[in-house]
Amino acid sequence: MCRWLAYSGESLHPSALVLDTAHSLVAQSLNSPLGAETVNGDGFGLGWYPMGAMGDGRAGVPALFRSIEPAWWDENLRELTQAIETELFFAHVRAAAGPPIQQTNCHPFRHGRWLFMHNGALAEFHRYRRDLMLELDPELFPLIRGTTDSEVLFHLALTLGLEQDPIAAVGRAIRRVEDAGRAHDVPQPMQGTVAVTDGATIWAFRYSSSGRSRSLFHSIDIPSLRELYPDFERLDTFGPTARVVVSEPLTDLPGAFVEVPEATAVIIGPGGDFRQEPFLAAA
C-alpha cells in the first residue's frame, strides 16, 4: 500500500532519514521488501513543524509539501529535506489502491496543528463511504479535498474527539469503520497503520480487523544503540531523544528496530518519552 516514517527528537535535516539511510524512505519507494507492493511511486508527502513555530504566532501549524511525482524522481524533495531543520516530521510515499493519483490524495493530511497519515485501506470503502461521510462534523465535511479513505478516517477521528484524546478518538473512528463495513457485508473493513501528531507528541497505531496488519517498527533509544555500536559514526547525526516509527526498518543493524505488536499504540512524547500500550482488542 504505502510506506511512512515519523520522527521526533533533536532538530535535524529530514534527509538524514528520508534519503541517507541504507533503507531510506526514498529507497523504500522504489523497493519495499516488507510492503504489500514493492514500488510506492504514486506520490509522496512531507509534513514538518518549522523551528520556532510555537513562538511566531502560528500556534505550531505544520508546513506541508506533497507531490504526485515518485519520491525517487523529485528533485524538490531532495532540496527541501536537506534545507529544512525540524524536531518533528512525517514523511509518506504512496502506492495508490484505487483513488486517483492527485496531490490532494497524498499524505500526510493536515488540520490546524495536526498531521495524519495511513498505510493500508478500508476494504470496499465505496460501499459505506456515504455512511461515514454523513457522520462527520458539519464544519469538517467541506474540508475534505481528496477522495481517499484515509482522509475520511482522519476527519472521522477529528469528529470523535482527536484533539482531546487521540488514542480514544482513533479507536472510536476505527470501530465506527468496522460497524459501517460489516453493516454492508464487509467482514474485515480496517487494515493498516496510522500516525497522528499535534506537533509535540506522536501517536502511532497498528491495527486491522483481520489481526494481520501492515508492518510497523520503532527504533530503540539512541544511548542503547551507541552502546551496541560504539564505532558506528552515523549515530552522531542523532541526539539522545531521537526516535522514529517506520513502516519498515531503515537500516540492517541488528536490534536497531523493534516490531510493534498487533493491536498496539506507540506514543512518543517530548524529551524522548516513549511507551506503548494495547490498542483495541481484535474484533
Automatic annotation (TrEMBL):
<dbReference type="InterPro" id="IPR017932">
    <property type="entry name" value="GATase_2_dom"/>
</dbReference>
<keyword id="KW-0315">Glutamine amidotransferase</keyword>
<protein>
    <submittedName>
        <fullName>Class II glutamine amidotransferase</fullName>
    </submittedName>
</protein>
<dbReference type="InterPro" id="IPR026869">
    <property type="entry name" value="EgtC-like"/>
</dbReference>
<keyword id="KW-0808">Transferase</keyword>
<dbReference type="Pfam" id="PF13230">
    <property type="entry name" value="GATase_4"/>
</dbReference>
<dbReference type="GO" id="GO:0016740">
    <property type="term" value="F:transferase activity"/>
</dbReference>
<dbReference type="InterPro" id="IPR029055">
    <property type="entry name" value="Ntn_hydrolases_N"/>
</dbReference>
<feature type="domain" description="Glutamine amidotransferase type-2">
    <location>
        <begin position="2"/>
        <end position="283"/>
    </location>
</feature>
<dbReference type="InterPro" id="IPR052373">
    <property type="entry name" value="Gamma-glu_amide_hydrolase"/>
</dbReference>
